[in-house]
Amino acid sequence: MHLQEELYQSLYELADQGNIALDQGRYEEAIVLWQQALDVLPAPVNQWQAAFWLYASMGEALYQLERYDEATAVLEQAAHNPEGKENPYPYYMLGKCAWRSGQDKAAKYLLKAYDLDGEGIFIADPVDGEACLAYLYDLGAL
């Protein structure tokens, strides 16, 4: 499926503005922009590849704001998108949210990310990657 050019352009501009806001630490603004971009997509929203990246991006911003429950909700949307089923990112972020919240399900999500990408996604995260890998090793999961 392809979006009409006008819809695609609007979506792209909103998503790009959201990415700029995220890079500048303006997380709330980024979330609003990405939600507006989601609103451009025809229903059902989760059929579109763009929805995966928008949900994943919103999850990252919510994680940065330490709003782990809200991050989990949108990251689950990303994971359930056809594009997200084999992508380690939403599972890694779901694992980090659960890990930060002290929830046991952190291991399940982090292991799924590990199964999809090995240590790559952990190594790519200079803030939490090493600690998340250590968490899995300490549990005896790896």
From TrEMBL:
It comes from the Bacteria. InterPro entries: TPR-like_helical_dom_sf, TPR_rpt. TPR repeats lie at residues 11-44. SUPFAM superfamilies: TPR-like. Signal peptide: none annotated. Keywords: TPR repeat. The keyword Nucleotide-binding does not apply. Pfam families: TPR_12. SMART domains: TPR. PROSITE patterns: TPR (PS50005). This is Tetratricopeptide repeat protein. It comes from Paenalcaligenes hermetiae.
